[in-house]
Automatic annotation (TrEMBL):
<dbReference type="InterPro" id="IPR036280">
    <property type="entry name" value="Multihaem_cyt_sf"/>
</dbReference>
<keyword id="KW-1133">Transmembrane helix</keyword>
<feature type="region of interest" description="Disordered">
    <location>
        <begin position="102"/>
        <end position="155"/>
    </location>
</feature>
<feature type="transmembrane region" description="Helical">
    <location>
        <begin position="668"/>
        <end position="689"/>
    </location>
</feature>
<feature type="signal peptide">
    <location>
        <begin position="1"/>
        <end position="28"/>
    </location>
</feature>
<dbReference type="InterPro" id="IPR051829">
    <property type="entry name" value="Multiheme_Cytochr_ET"/>
</dbReference>
<feature type="compositionally biased region" description="Basic and acidic residues">
    <location>
        <begin position="124"/>
        <end position="133"/>
    </location>
</feature>
<keyword id="KW-0812">Transmembrane</keyword>
<keyword id="KW-0732">Signal</keyword>
<protein>
    <submittedName>
        <fullName>Signal peptide protein</fullName>
    </submittedName>
</protein>
<feature type="compositionally biased region" description="Low complexity">
    <location>
        <begin position="105"/>
        <end position="121"/>
    </location>
</feature>
<keyword id="KW-0472">Membrane</keyword>
Length: 694
């Protein structure tokens, strides 16, 4: 036998086998669900028992004698698809501008390639234009419905500056102001579960910063990784307060270890200077150290993590609590009514669900959810009233059978929810109002009330609050939602910040730089309002004018301004005086609002439950309730009623109300007329009946 020929033949078969296996593996990875081809899963509703080995950021196994913090990514990522999870909604609240630019560039390139391919396959120019328009719409919706901004608050300078990395109207991009991702992480890191730019800092990101800026502190602090335990730890096993304190000390990489309380962290990065040599033994000695609790380690070296698959409500409350503020102060908890769904025993995650991608369903109407059409039934209408356009939704997702399981799931009554009959309510209400307009938020009064949130006021942290702390948030404000145009209750605030005028437009300045350069001029120790604004307009004008002059001199700004209460203040011609100036970008000065959905009230407490006149009267609160611009400046602004915010003409509204005011009398007159008409007919027919009987 020819051995060389046999070898060549075997080689050919090996190559062919390799190609087939590679092709099959490639296709399988594309077809399988995220993580199913690589990561094992139980496919059971039971809770999995976690006795696991811990690993540090250098992928070294941790023992009780280790001094390095454990890495969530290196530990949890051994069994879970960390890459897929990291794209979740909560983990990208701090998506950096560099990442956004790269993501947008990649999306545009992919969109262009898809458009070119479609144009080649189709001869219809209208088809290509439709695809391009669809792609553009998808890009616009990529950031979703506007949510609560990150409000940078500084009581010393009277600042309440709404920030967001997502492209939402009325919010400012931190990087454009000069606020670094590190600053944002230290300021708000306790209110995010980690991830995004806070966990993937890029040494090359310095290209966004000015050459004169200080060295980055990231090498010292480490990354604030996604902390799975923040949501999945059993209630009571995770210490949010300790996590917050650790992040404030700039010990980002040590936060998960401290929060789960498996060891004590000593040392603080905040006391160290940036730009030091990490290889230096003296620097290494100053870095925080962990002393692990050896009682938490088993004989085999594993650590027990008491966690749950479905996050408990207590984890959500850390970032999503709210409290109303009346004239007498913060409303006491004992007088505070829970959401009707929570009172019925539901959990937050019953509606706000997610898969392995952690793209949490937000639950608003018209939500374009990456997971598919199932999110439609998790909105108010979808759950209680079902999804009406079944055929269209099914066809769009390849479900041609109208009796498929997917279609049945679109019926009303998901999770046992009652079907609201809304007897006597004209259908036009569902075209103008969201469900939350009548059922959610504080019951409206003659004016909007103060509101405090976890993100803005640190609810959950121990402290002494009066309810007057910045930022000044109010609600409910009945305005048309940007996502669907339906009247929806909102929370609202007016920005207050120090800025500069550039070509007639106001641009915010870095809050930290402002404090450094205005400290001597303002001479405020703790509270801008208490030490300046409450002393009167004269004191305010003098100190603010001096601070603006200091900014113009030390920060080399041509014209500095202070924004508050919807007004823009600049230095006047007279010494220690201020004037109000107009700016072209009014959206940087006016009200910033975002929709609210909780707490949901029962049907008996819904607007309109007592009849049409509750809204359709001259004093109907959904139209006449007012909200007044509030800010640190001692300015008394004019109240704004809800009708004007909704774009309604007051004269037309009053004329329309007259129809409802006389409805009862009209019904009585109509009924009386019908009775008299019947009696008259009966009377005219009576002689004929008698004659026939006789």
């Amino acid at each position: 036998m020819d051995v060389s020929r046999l070898n060549r033949r075997c080689l050919r078969w090996c190559v062919l086998t390799f190609v087939l296996v590679a092709a099959f593996g490639w296709n399988a990875s594309r077809v399988d669900a995220a993580g199913s081809s690589k990561y094992a899963h139980s496919d059971s509703d039971k809770r999995f028992l976690h006795h696991i080995d811990l690993y540090d950021r250098n992928n070294r196994k941790i023992s009780p004698d280790s001094t390095e913090p454990y890495s969530v990514e290196k530990t949890c990522g051994r069994c879970h698809d960390f890459e897929t999870i990291s794209h979740g909604w909560h983990f990208n609240a701090f998506a950096s501008e560099v990442e956004r630019q790269r993501s947008n560039a990649a999306a545009q390139a992919a969109s262009q390639a898809e458009t070119d391919e479609t144009a080649t396959q189709s001869e219809s120019p209208e088809h290509s234009e439709a695809d391009a328009e669809h792609t553009e719409d998808e890009d616009v919706r990529s950031d979703g419905r506007p949510g609560e901004p990150w409000i940078w608050t500084d009581a010393r300078t009277g600042t309440q500056l709404p920030l967001a990395y997502r492209d939402w109207e009325g919010r400012f991009s931190p990087s454009e102001i000069g606020i670094t991702t590190h600053d944002m992480t230290q300021k708000f890191g306790a209110r995010i579960p980690g991830g995004g730019a806070a966990a993937n800092w890029d040494p090359k990101s310095a290209e966004l910063a000015d050459e004169s800026s200080e060295p980055t502190r990231w090498p010292l602090t480490g990354s604030l990784e996604i902390d799975c335990m923040a949501c999945h730890a059993k209630s009571g096993a995770y210490d949010f307060e300790r996590r917050r304190e650790t992040i404030e000390d700039e010990n980002f990489a040590w936060a998960p270890t401290a929060a789960i309380r498996i060891g004590e962290v000593s040392g603080s990065v905040s006391r160290m200077k940036a730009g030091v040599d990490l290889e230096d033994e003296k620097v290494q000695a100053k870095l925080p150290k962990v002393q692990y609790d050896d009682r938490r380690f088993g004989i085999d070296g594993t650590v027990f993590f008491d966690l749950v698959r479905v996050p408990e409500n207590n984890s959500c409350y850390q970032c999503h609590s709210q409290r109303t503020v009346s004239d007498s102060g913060i409303d006491a908890r004992w007088n505070h009514d829970q959401d009707v769904h929570l009172r019925a025993g539901m959990k937050c995650v019953d509606c706000h669900r997610n898969g392995i991608d952690h793209q949490t369903v937000r639950g608003f109407e018209g939500e374009q959810h990456p997971a598919g059409v199932s999110a439609t039934t998790l909105s108010c209408r979808g759950c209680h009233m079902g999804v009406s356009e079944l055929a269209g939704d099914a066809h769009a997702h390849g479900q041609d059978d109208p009796l498929s399981l997917t279609q049945i799931a679109f019926r009303a009554g998901r999770l046992g929810s009652p079907f609201p009959k809304h007897e006597g309510l004209p259908p036009v209400h569902f075209e103008k109002l969201s469900c939350t307009a009548c059922h959610s938020g504080p019951i409206p009064g003659e004016k909007a009330i103060g509101m405090m949130t976890s993100l803005a006021h640190g609810l959950g942290e121990k402290g002494h609050r009066s309810g007057l702390e910045l930022p000044s948030i109010q609600g409910p404000v009945f305005a048309k939602a940007d996502s669907n145009g339906l009247v929806t209750p909102h929370r609202a605030m007016w920005p207050a910040y120090w800025g500069k005028l550039v070509d007639g437009k106001v641009v915010p300045l870095s809050p930290e730089e402002v404090y450094t350069n205005t400290r001597r001029a303002l001479r405020v120790r703790k509270d801008f309002i208490e030490e300046l604004s409450e002393k009167g307009r004269e004191e305010f004008d003098e100190k603010v004018a001096g601070a603006l002059a200091a900014i113009e001199k030390t920060m080399e700004v041509e014209q500095a301004v202070y924004v508050s209460t919807g007004l823009v203040f600049a230095r006047g011609d007279k010494e220690d005086s201020l004037i109000e100036v107009e700016v072209e970008n009014r959206d940087a000065v006016e009200m910033v609002r975002w929709p609210m959905a909780h707490n949901v009230r029962p049907a008996g407490w819904a607007l309109g439950a007592t009849g049409c006149l509750e809204c359709h009267s001259d004093d109907g609160l959904v139209f006449t309730s007012t909200v007044t611009p509030k800010g640190p400046a001692p300015v008394t602004a004019e109240p704004i009623n809800m009708a004007s915010i909704q774009g309604l003409d007051e004269a037309t509204r009053l004329e329309w109300n007259q129809l409802f005011g006389g409805r009862k009398m009209f019904k009585v007159l109509t009924a009386t007329s019908l009775i008299l008409l019947l009696l008259a007919v009966a009377g005219s027919c009576l002689p004929t009946v008698r004659s026939r009987i006789e």
